Amino acid sequence: MNRNVTILIVVLTILVIAGYLVWLRNQFSQEVAVSATPTPMMSVPTPTITPLPLVSSSSAIITPSMRVKEVSPSAVKVIPQVKISPKS
Predict the structure, then answer these.
(1) 3-class DSSP state for residue 87?
(2) Predicted TM-score (pTM) of this structure
(3) Calpha distance 60→53 (Å, rounded)
(4) If DSSP codes are grouped into helix, strand and coil, which group holds residue 30?
(5) pLDDT tens sequence across 43-64
(6) pLDDT value at 13 more than 80
(7) What is the CA angle 12-17-19, rounded to 5?
């Protein structure tokens, strides 16, 4: 008998909670529908794209003369290193 009463109370509690949630959802959706007023949309200016100036075709082409030149060993300055002997 006690088990049946417990099951009945649990079922009724679930039904009451479900009914409350449905009522609350209806109240919320009615409140939003009533308070919603259409507002005019402001037009936002669209950004315009301006073309970049064109590069002349002669300067845009990489020629063999534009390669990196190698540095000759005689052009490199050698700095003598100073050696410090440890004190004994």
Answers:
(1) coil
(2) 0.34
(3) 13
(4) helix
(5) 777 777 777 776 555 555 555 6
(6) yes
(7) 95
Phi/psi-derived region of residue 49, left when phi > 0, alpha when psi is between -120 and 50, beta in every other case? beta
DSSP string of 31-81, one letter each residue: HHHHH----PPPPPPPPP-PPPPPPPHHHHS--GGGSPPPPPGGGSPPPPP
Q: How far is CA 77 from CA 71, 72, 88, in A?
A: 11, 11, 34
Tell me the residue type at 64: P
Distances, alpha carbon 25 to alpha carbons 3, 6, 34, in Å: 33, 29, 14
Q: Which two tokens stand for residue 3?
A: 């088990």
Residue with tokens 């002669």, as numbered in its chain: 58
Q: Can you tell me the distance from the alpha carbon of 40 to that of 37, in angstroms, rounded to the nearest whole number?
A: 10
